[in-house]
Every structure is written in structure tokens, then in C-alpha cells.
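Thread title: Can someone regenerate the structure for this chain?

I was given the following input by a collaborator and told the matching C-alpha cells would be attached. They weren't. Posting the sequence so someone can regenerate them.
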Amino acid sequence: MTAADRPLAPPHAPPSRIVLPIVGAWVLALAAEASGRGTALHHDHLIKGGQVPWWAALALFLVGWQVMIAAMMLPSSLPLIHLFKRAAAAQPHAERVKAAFLVGYVVVWTGFGLLAFGGDVSVHATVDRWPWLAARPWLIGGLTLLLAGGFQFSALKDQCLSECRHPAAYLTRYYQRGVGAAFRLGRGHGLFCLGCCWALMLVSFAAGIANLAWMALLTLVMVYEKTGRGGARAAKPIGGGFLALAGLVLLHPGWMPALFAAH
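Best answer:
Regenerated them for you:
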């Protein structure tokens, strides 16, 4: 096993203050699914429903998106969060320092959510103006899967995944004391995390906030890639799986009619 395949495993359990929000996010997602109200926060419903003004739709989307970040992204970042917590414990105002680190991370993914939401508004506008595409909604889902699968083979994926898999090395290079430094450290890690996982999260975005099956599958993929012993080597086979699924959707749209039902 090479060094790239050997992520650092923290010797102690991750902080409960991080685990609890992750568990809470999944409980909320399950409750929304069970109640049938989860689709109310889906970006498609908010954009097309016309029941709330655009600013309220954006605010509601961001609420659901924060739940997705907590449920899907924080689990794969627990090793670095745990190491940073231990390193920052001796700093003055340690709690503020830890909060600033998490805020920096969340800001990156919130920015991505805003861009994805704006892009989806543009996609809907294009579909409304182009009857040919409106008659083939499966193309959007298929192309999203194709993009996610292809990105798994990219050099950017490899570079960012390597950074995410070695939290101790990242912390050694960039750690500094202070609230501002903690924010920059969290933001930097968030950017590497985004560079590694943006295409996978785009699949989750396309499938919808309320799609628990995709949420669970993609969370497992991202956690294994970043923390599993063979995670680095698994990226390309995972990409091959997404490419195969994209081919099935694009060539045989009826094979999985409910995959991206919201579109």
C-alpha cells in the first residue's frame, strides 16, 4: 500500500460537537422524507412552484443546503476537524478559533450551493425556451452523471483528493494561531474539498435535496475516497461506474425513469 492510499486516522473519537450536527442533519433529512415535505426545499420546486418570491426561495434552499453540507461533507472532513481541534485547544479564545475554522469551510460550500442554484435557474430558463430539450429532460441528468464520472479521472481530482487524504500534512503546512488564520485554514481545506467533490455534489444537487438514496450513496463514496485505505485507488473505478450509469440514462432513458424525476 502506497502513502497515497494510507490516510491518517485520528487516535481518538471525533468531537461530539461535530458528530451531533451530522447526526441531526440526517435525522432532519429522514424526517423530511417520512413526512413527504422534503421536496418543498428542492431547488426545482422552489424555482418552478411560483409560490414564494425568489429571495425567499433562495433562503429556503440555503436552509436545505446547509443540512446537506452537514450530512454529506462534514463526515469526510472529520479527521482534519479532529486534528485542528486538538491543535487549537491551547490557543487563546480556542472556541472562537474552532468556530472560525468551520465557518471558513462552510462558506466555501455555501458559495458553491449559490452558484449551483443560479446555474439551475439558467437551466430551467433554457428548458422553458427550448421545446426540444423540454421533451428530453433525462439529458440533464445523464450529462450530470457523465460530468461526474469524467471528473473522477482528472488531475485536479487526484491533487485535491491527495490533500484531503492527508490532513496532518495539510495542517502542518498551513496551521497558524488566531481566529483569522483559522478561518483561512478552514477556507483552504474547503477549497480542496470542493475541488475533490464538486462534481459528486452536483449529482446530489441534480437528484434533489430530498433524495436520500443519492445522499447516502454519495456520502459513502466521498467518505471512503478521503478516509478509506483504498480510497485513492477507488476514484477511477467509481468514475467508471458513473460513466456507465450515464450511458444507461442517455441511451435508454426509460431504464431509470425516476433517477432525476424533479427535472
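The chain has a mean pLDDT of 83.
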